[in-house]
Amino acid sequence: MITIRGVVEWVRRVGFTAGASAGGAGRAEPAERAIAMTSSTSQSGVGAPARARGMRILLVDDHAEVRSTTAAVLHDLGHEVVEAANGNDALTVLKNGDCEYDLMISDYAMPNLSGTEFLREARVLCPGVPALIITGYAETDAIQDRPDGVEVLLKPFTPNNLDAALGRVAGALAVSR
What we know:
single chain; 177 residues; alpha/beta; Rossmann fold; five-stranded parallel sheet; 6 helices
């Protein structure tokens, strides 16, 4: 019950509503108005590089509702998204030779294999792929066990916060597209 309540609150804060769209029935769509969120320096988007577009992204999150909503935002931002329900499923995809990703996004707190553990193993299989951890359970500074160069984006986030984080993480790739 707490998890469902948390997901509903997150969706409300991010500013999405369920409904039919050209992209498919029942897909989450951005609300008409921007939703204010608690600000943080890493999420402000100030000084962020040019917007990244057209990236192929591996999205890993154990909460189906959060994963599908985040995937919908990423699609709306112009990206191709491959979804995995947990770190082990995502590693299976990577072990099968699919390392053609511009970015990996992983939830931090997942059962069996945390986001940081997943990213460590993923980087062995697919070195050089930039990564972003998204979390609603930890402060950015508390995730000290993350691999080098991995940024943290706190949930809830707006589509603009996510877009800015993608640009920062993708760096030169984002600017070149």
